[in-house]
């Protein structure tokens, strides 16, 4: 079956998410709130499964990682120490016409003709037209040409007067005296300068568009700023290549890029004042650093070891977009894995092991590993984890950030990217952060973050490798990856299009659906409910008796339920004793069916969903 096009595919996914209760717009009945999302019954289960898989893989299946659950609002000095108050910002630009705000790096470069305007007179011109008749207007044009289009903010009234005088004289010298001309010029100047808009403005037009389109946009710009019928002044044009200074939606000039801090503010306590200012955490990581000492002492972990945390983070993103991909409230799953500084490893083992090609996640960590090998190890571990929940290696890209892209504290960062329908984008960043964070908190809090390493007989501030992933982004990747359309036979055997969410059984919201073949046969319903109750303590089960069996299968295919168990007449023993107490177990992806003994169902399903 032909694959839907990129935009179409995303539209279908968004619509399925709403229809089936994966994801809803937040505050929908009030018109929604941009950048905020709610997870419905299926979405909530999906997220829980993702988080449980991640948590289990780190804290239960390893000996060297422990968990933390810290508060969202923390001491504001933490964000000074981490650098968030001073540097956690994106460059933003505003459209001068619509006031809409954009991230500067998201403006696509464009080429075309830019039309520049020096300002506008309130001269009675209509949108798209130029007002050429009045002497005052012509005087401004003459003035601007003579002044080489110097900004009208620095208007030289005397020079303007001279321009107007020349024009008046050329037109009226025979009918008016010198004195009358002088008086007329002064009156006109006083009148027009009062209604002058001195703000420059520009419009970019794509090749082939007539100049009137630029004039219309400029007219709207000056009209919005209080000039009722703007006569545009000083129009001139220039060809531009690959510029990002204009709004691609309407051609209007954008403001100069300026930094915008992404932290959401609140105040703590009954008085709202600068002293009570606090932030909703923009990442969960900092809590791990500030609790490093406490956690290390109580868990009696020795370096190398990690602390992980799952929790909400908030960023006042300039442009939330691509569904939940960039939200203002989201969840992170972060691990800070503390390691010895390379100098300590060198002293302890005699040498720091060197990189020798791509690290296998199967390799056991060694005492002579420095940060580079630990970093590679975690990249491999994380890729393996994504594969274990159904993101095939071919859907992921390992992107090593070049030096110029690295954050100031990072020695190296690898982004694990996923091929979303809207482009290949980051799912998780794995950064080697050195000792930046602990050293900063030591400096700002005055409390030692040093660790005494008995084995190495050395005291040091540990270094850290940080795999940091987003739950919502991963949920979206899994949904996009799972979405499929194929052909399946309907009740009468005719092929029809089936929408199927091929979610890995480990993270599927419902693991098994239980159906009585017919709802009006009491024995079938009774048996089906027994099967449901048998499975319930072990897995999420959905019981459905409404509608034709084919339709019930389709509903579960859309929900991503990997297995369906149907209780039919064979189950009741009506077609021979050998099939009594067996059910039809249908597999979502292959649609294959097999007979399974009811007593064997829990173990068989448990094995396939773990
Ligand atoms: N402590 C490091 C840190 O926070 P980050 O790259 O800014 O690094 C880590 O964020 C992960 O958090 C990202 O890879 C992404 O999965 C998720 N994330 C970040 N901003 C997000 C947003 N606005 N909406 C959804 N997820 C986001």
Describe the structure.
Helix content is 33%, strand content 26%. The chain has 610 residues and is an alpha+beta fold. A 7-stranded mixed beta sheet has the order 3-15-16-22-19-18-17, sandwiched between helices. A hairpin with a 5-residue loop joins strand 23 and strand 24. Helix 2 (41-60) packs across helix 14, helix 5 (135-146) packs across helix 6 and helix 6 crosses helix 7. The radius of gyration is 34 Å and the shape is globular. The mean pLDDT is 93.
Q: Provide the structure class.
A: alpha+beta
| Average pLDDT | 93
Please report which band the strand proportion falls in: under 5%, 5-15%, 15-25%, 25-35%, 35-45% or over 45%: 25-35%
**Cα Rg:** 34 Å
Largest sheet: 7 strands, mixed
- Which ligands appear in the coordinates? glycyl-adenosine-5'-phosphate
Distance between the termini: 31 Å
Q: What is the tally of beta strands? A: 29
Q: How are strands sequenced across the largest beta sheet?
A: 3-15-16-22-19-18-17
Number of helices, counting only DSSP H or I runs of 4 residues or more: 17
Q: What gross morphology would you assign?
A: globular
| Helix percent band | 25-40%
Low-confidence stretches: none
């Amino acid at each position: 079956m032909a694959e839907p096009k990129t935009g179409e595919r995303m539209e279908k996914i968004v619509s399925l998410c709403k229809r089936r209760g994966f994801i809803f717009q937040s505050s929908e009945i009030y018109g929604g709130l941009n950048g905020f999302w709610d997870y419905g019954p299926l979405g909530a289960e999906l997220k829980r499964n993702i988080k449980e898989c991640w948590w289990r893989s780190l804290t239960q299946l390893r000996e060297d990682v422990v968990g933390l659950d810290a508060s969202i609002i923390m001491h504001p000095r933490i964000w000074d120490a981490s650098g968030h108050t001073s540097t956690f910002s994106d460059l933003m630009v505003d459209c001068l016409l619509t006031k809409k705000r954009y991230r500067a790096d998201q403006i696509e470069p464009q080429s075309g003709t830019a039309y520049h305007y020096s300002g506008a007179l309130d001269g009675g011109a209509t949108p798209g037209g130029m007002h050429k008749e009045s002497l005052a207007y012509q005087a401004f044009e003459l003035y601007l040409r003579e002044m080489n289009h110097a900004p009208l903010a620095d208007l030289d009234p005397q020079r303007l007067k001279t321009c107007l005088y020349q024009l008046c004289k050329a037109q009226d010298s025979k009918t008016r005296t010198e004195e009358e001309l002088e008086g007329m010029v002064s009156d006109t100047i006083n009148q027009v300068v009062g209604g002058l808009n001195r703000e420059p403005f520009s419009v970019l037009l794509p090749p082939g568009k007539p100049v009137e389109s630029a004039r219309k946009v400029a007219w709207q710009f000056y009209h919005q700023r209080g000039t009722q019928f703007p006569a545009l002044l000083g129009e001139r044009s220039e060809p531009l290549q690959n510029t990002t200074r204009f709004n691609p939606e309407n051609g209007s000039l954008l403001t100069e890029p300026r930094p915008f801090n992404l932290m959401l503010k609140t105040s703590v306590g009954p008085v709202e004042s600068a002293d009570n200012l606090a932030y909703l955490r923009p990442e969960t990581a900092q809590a791990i650093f500030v609790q490093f000492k406490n956690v290390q002492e109580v868990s009696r972990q020795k370096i190398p070891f990690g602390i992980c945390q799952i929790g909400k983070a908030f960023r006042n993103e300039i442009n939330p977009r691509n569904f939940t991909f960039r939200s203002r409230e989201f969840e992170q799953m972060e691990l800070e894995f503390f390691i010895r500084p390379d100098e300590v490893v060198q002293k302890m083992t005699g040498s720091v092991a060197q990189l020798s090609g791509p690290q296998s996640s199967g390799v056991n960590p060694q005492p002579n590993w420095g940060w580079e090998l630990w970093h590679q190890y975690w990249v491999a571990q994380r890729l393996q984890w994504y594969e274990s929940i159904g993101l095939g290696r071919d859907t992921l890209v390992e992107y090593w950030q070049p030096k110029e892209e690295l954050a100031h504290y990072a020695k190296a960062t690898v982004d694990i990217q996923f091929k979303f329908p809207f482009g290949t984008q980051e799912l998780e960043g794995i950064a080697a952060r050195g000792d930046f964070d602990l050293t900063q908190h030591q400096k700002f809090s005055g409390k030692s973050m040093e660790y005494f390493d008995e084995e190495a007989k050395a005291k040091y501030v540990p270094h850290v490798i940080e795999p940091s992933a987003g739950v919502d982004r991963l949920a979206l990747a899994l949904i996009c990856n799972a979405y499929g359309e194929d052909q399946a036979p309907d009740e009468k055997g005719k092929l029809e299009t089936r929408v199927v969410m091929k979610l890995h059984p480990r993270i599927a919201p419902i693991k098994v659906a239980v159906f009585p073949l017919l709802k009006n046969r009491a024995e079938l319903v009774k048996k089906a409910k027994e099967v449901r109750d048998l499975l319930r303590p072990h897995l999420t089960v959905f019981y459905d008796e409404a509608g034709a069996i084919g339709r019930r299968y389709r509903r579960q295919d859309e929900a991503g339920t990997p297995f369906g168990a149907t209780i039919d007449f064979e189950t009741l023993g009506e077609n021979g004793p050998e099939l009594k107490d067996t059910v039809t177990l249908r597999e979502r992806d292959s649609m294959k069916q097999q007979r399974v003994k009811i007593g064997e169902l829990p173990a068989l399903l448990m094995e396939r969903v773990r």
